Amino acid sequence: MSILSKRIKQRREELGYSQQELATKLGYKSRSTIAKIEGEDNDIPQSKIKIFADALETTPTWLMGWESDPTKLGDNKFMGQNIKNTRLSKGYSLEKLSKLTNRDITYLTKLENGEVEIIVSEIVDIANALGKSVLALVGWEKERTEKEIKEDEKEFALHTYADLLAEYLDEGVKKIINSYYQLNDIGKNEAVERIEELTYIHKYKNQDDDTMDNDNF
């Protein structure tokens, strides 16, 4: 069996196509044509290789064995287990995921068991069905917790508010704001206390503030 024949069969099985389904996709009447191509050293015309590659969602150079598939992500068992864990955490059965993604149950089972190559274009629908990004689904991207998301939103809001205020403040205040956001929580509390302490020292206070204080007594 040639590399071309092996890869046509390999890619067909990765996509969960039967020989008849691939034959129909390519315009052949019988599965026997595909069986013959996969089982023997057949010379397929260059024009046909491109058609096969398109039907199998890959490239002619990969089918010919001239390159590794650039769309493949890597450790199939590790990533397959991540996909399975995500599915189970959502409470989805393989049957439900199959209906949501229009993927064969046999293919999904092999995918989760690490028995087929995991390809980005192939699992986009699976990621969407499970509410994950592709990278998070295969375990390449750390999922942020709800607390982390809220903290990021709070930090963004504070920075945005500070930027708006800075348009109307002098350079000294801008420098204070910039320095404040470089501190951790302990440093921020300390900075607030020190600035407040300065307001108790007469020589550091505005004259207008002194007048207001006197009016209040």
Describe the protein's architecture and organization.
This protein has 14 helices and no strands. The protein has 217 residues and is mainly alpha-helical. It has 3 domains: 3-63, lambda repressor-like DNA-binding domains (434 Repressor (Amino-terminal Domain)), CATH 1.10.260; 76-137, lambda repressor-like DNA-binding domains (434 Repressor (Amino-terminal Domain)); 146-216. It is elongated and about 95 Å long.
Keywords:
434 Repressor (Amino-terminal Domain), 217 residues, elongated, mainly alpha, 0% strand, 3 domains
What's the gist of this structure?
With 217 residues, this protein is an all-alpha fold. The chain contains 14 helices and no strands.
Count of all domains: 3
- In terms of DSSP E residues, the strand content is under 5%
Classification by helices and strands: mainly alpha
Helix percentage: 55-70%
Poorly predicted regions are none
The number of distinct β-strands equals 0
Radius of gyration: 31 Å
Compute the number of helices: 14
The coarse silhouette is elongated
Biggest beta-sheet profile = none
Q: Taking all residues together, what is the mean pLDDT?
A: 78
The arrangement of helices and strands along the chain is HHHHHHHHHHHHHH
Distance between the termini: 99 Å
List the helices and strands and how they pair.
Blueprint: H1 3-15, H2 19-26, H3 31-39, H4 46-55, H5 60-63, H6 76-89, H7 94-101, H8 105-112, H9 120-129, H10 134-137, H11 146-166, H12 171-180, H13 185-198, H14 207-216
